[in-house]
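Subgroup meeting minutes
Present: P.N., E.W., G.H.
Scribe: E.W.

1. P.N. recapped why we're keeping a running log of single-chain structure predictions: easier to compare across weeks, and new members can see raw inputs and outputs side by side.
2. G.H. added today's entry (284 aa).
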Amino acid sequence: MAAAAAAAVAHIGLMDSAYFVGRGEILTWINATLQLSLAKVEEAASGAVQCQLLDMVHPGVVPMHKVNFDAKTEYDMIQNYKVLQDVFNKLRINKNIEVNRLVKGRPLDNLEFLQWLKRYCDAVNGGIMNENYNPAERRSKGGKERNHKASNKSSKSLQANRLSSANSADGAPTTEKVCISTVMEDHYMEQIQQLSEKIADLKVSVDSTEKERDFYFSKLRDIEILCQRPELEHLPMTKGIRKILYAADAKDSSLSEANEIITRSPGMFPDEAECQATPKSPYT
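Output recorded in log:
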């Protein structure tokens, strides 16, 4: 069942009805299914919600103790998406997860992924919720297991630090080694600072580019919806616009072909000489 559902929805296009499900419906579905109270789709950017949705339709497949619902940093969010990708691999779901975009918390990217996920879940369970699934209990158990493992790791780390301190006391480093270590540390810190500044500049550039992309995408989407109106879709002008919108090759312009479609259509442009020969009377 999972393989059939994955095959059915893995390659659905942007024009599929799945991507026309509104934010309100998506949020209502998530909140009702997982007993949450999300107000915005970007609140699901951590990847934890997506993991639990798969846990609901495929009980026992998702290691919920690895899912962090309190993830705030991009690093912690990425760990959740690693869990999600592992589950996708187990279920043979051939779906690319745009982690770098999702963790930014951008509404459009998160909405599209949740729209796709809803279509997948509906394909698996037929849109029927699992009444035996207790989402709050699953989150609670996962949190307890994760905290227990984290506590064990902390204890081991503390023991290692104590052993290291004892070894250092037996063989203390010389003054020369300390000086070399300090110089190297300053050098690396300077490099880290420079790289951090470059990363910050790149993030600003990427954010600006993505905002511009989203702006123009929304405009093109509005034009596409307008061209699908029954009273307009047969018009030559509409056909010309759609020729440009659906051009497969990004390198070659489709403007000339669109112009040909429009100019080839009878009645689009009345003869100028005829218009000039029979001027309208200002008194009619």
